[in-house]
Design the sequence.
């Protein structure tokens, strides 16, 4: 998408320096736009763990670039054959919940034969990462087209009034390579001239809604309003929300959805107020090995993310302490929304109900027998 | 309650300077403990509107002190008879949702006869404010005793394991003159040796949970953990919460409860997970003139409270900007939890179901025929 007047993806290989992967370091947004260069596996590992990049699809693609860099690094430093497998394990250990991480690493490893010539392997990996990134963009665009229909139907039913959509966290282009998942339908609808307005949950503790989603929408000129996570229930009760769309970090084949902590509370409230609640996701997010959301590991992150808040002060990004110094905190990063609260899943293959049967119908080639 | 080793209320008249009302300026907690002196109605008005004091019961008592000060000011400056009524109107206009504000002002105005000698009136008002403050303390203590039974029953059923209680916002002693409402049962249970632990919702946008509830509990030595508002659903799903207790800013006679924004989401989640959800309130919070929660006006506050976050940086309390500067925000201060999600109301007269019939049974003298 555009940042100012220039077009960006969230991750790319520097065309003048092959082997240098460039990312938008999202920790500084919206206050500073910083491009970071990554040339080693450890750099990629840090960028995922410390959330320079985040969002399940982008985590996956970044990890794929990590595998590619591991081969470059192996060659550069004359490392042993195990380096690529150790690197893959290290990349897999960065974050536990996002399914795309494991999917992308396995996908890229399966594309190579380690007995092949290393230059050939590097060439294959370079092409494969590029293809995976391109496919992510195409899938997100397709998710956008499918999801657009839902927004369009609502718009038709209440035109000339605007469609009010609530989203939680950031499942925008910054969470993918481009377009986004939950925000893709919004971008398509906006392109097609639908009158809409987005309620942006700030999304504590890391405020990806207030920082990233609000920034994305502002850059694309889409009307939006930041609200605290607590406010969603009240505005749903008041009829101020027509539709909820969120992303997913891991989806069970029965339709249970792991997503940013707090998603479940919004789903409960949407259900209580008869508001459609959709989850947009590329199928790489679906974990075909599990049965229900109960099987999804939920990441517990550093409590400092709860205790300290980052923001702009005197033109510098600083971190401030909110509770008393002696008070402990707990920081689960995700929760699981049970399928019965989900109206439907918007995937690159189309929209389906959040049930085992409907998911199996859309993905007969993936479902575990 | 105790702050360090010294006992405090949240508001009192300086015994060495009659006519000087002293409050804990809660905007600086937990980082700084600052006592503010108030000697004029305008000072009281500001202290309520700008939330130096907050919490429905404390707002009420502070406004009562405001009426008392208006008479002192009238005498000091030789002002006309209207000054006291204008002051009452000004005090009533500070915040729209907390019922106790209107109740306390009407209650104290009804105690005086304006044809009486002004020194007599001042004397009467001084005694009356003191009595109202003392009654608030006694009522809160009684609420604590009633609520204790609920905690004790849970403790008996799961002993020797601790009872895990979730609370939203601050309905502790800082929200009242002393003891608190939602926290009063916790203080009583702690005194009586019940093993308990409190989940403290940070309570955006003003973080009264992270700042005030955590500080109160830390000062009293009660085990607690700060969580983001988004986390409550997940920990309820995981069986980590035995009981929810919150306060109320205004309660309808049918059992609908207006409380800090986000309360409704926690009630939904408690209901979905079969966790008892209690609301602790002095009956001065009940609005006998309305029928349901739909009739409760919901305060909309300055969006800057969403956009800027206060906390400690380099030993100073500073305010940082979180979202992009150009993104608008919306800031509703309260929401309404429908009675069907409320397990019971803990009042100074005892515990009742959140139904019209049970409330009427407990308050036959108050209910509008």
Sequence:
């Amino acid at each position: 998408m555009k940042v100012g007047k220039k077009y960006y993806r969230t991750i790319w290989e520097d065309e003048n320096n092959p082997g240098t992967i460039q990312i938008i370091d999202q920790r500084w947004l919206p206050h500073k736009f910083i491009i970071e260069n990554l040339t080693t596996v450890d750099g990629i590992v840090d960028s995922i763990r410390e959330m320079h990049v985040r969002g399940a699809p982008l985590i996956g693609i970044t990890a794929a670039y990590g595998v590619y860099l591991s081969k470059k690094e192996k060659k550069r430093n004359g490392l042993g054959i195990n380096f690529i497998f150790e690197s893959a394990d290290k990349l897999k250990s960065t974050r536990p919940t996002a399914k795309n991480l494991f999917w992308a690493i396995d996908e890229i490893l399966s594309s190579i034969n380690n007995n092949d010539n290393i230059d050939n392997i590097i060439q294959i990996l370079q092409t494969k990462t590029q293809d995976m990134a391109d496919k992510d963009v195409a899938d997100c665009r397709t998710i956008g087209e499918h999801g657009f229909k839902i927004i369009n139907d609502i718009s038709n039913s209440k035109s000339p009034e605007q469609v009010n959509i609530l989203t939680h966290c950031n499942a925008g282009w910054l969470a993918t390579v481009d377009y986004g998942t939950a925000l893709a339908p919004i971008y398509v609808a906006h392109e097609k001239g639908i009158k809409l307005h987005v309620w942006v949950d700030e999304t504590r503790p890391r405020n990806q809604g207030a920082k990233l989603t609000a920034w994305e929408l502002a850059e694309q000129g889409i009307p939006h309003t930041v609200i605290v996570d607590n406010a969603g229930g009240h505005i749903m009760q008041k009829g101020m929300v027509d539709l909820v769309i969120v992303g997913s970090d891991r989806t069970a084949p029965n339709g249970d959805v792991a997503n940013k902590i707090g998603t479940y509370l919004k789903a409960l409230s949407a259900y209580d107020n008869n508001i459609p609640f959709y989850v947009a996701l590329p199928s790489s997010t679906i974990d075909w090995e599990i049965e229900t959301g109960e099987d999804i590991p939920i990441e517990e992150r550093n409590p400092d993310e709860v205790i300290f808040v980052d923001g702009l002060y005197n033109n510098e990004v600083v971190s401030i302490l909110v509770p008393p110094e002696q008070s402990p905190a707990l920081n689960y990063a995700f929760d699981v929304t049970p399928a019965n609260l989900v109206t439907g899943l918007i995937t690159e293959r189309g929209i389906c109900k959040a049930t085992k049967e409907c998911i199996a119908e859309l993905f007969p080639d993936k479902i575990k027998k």
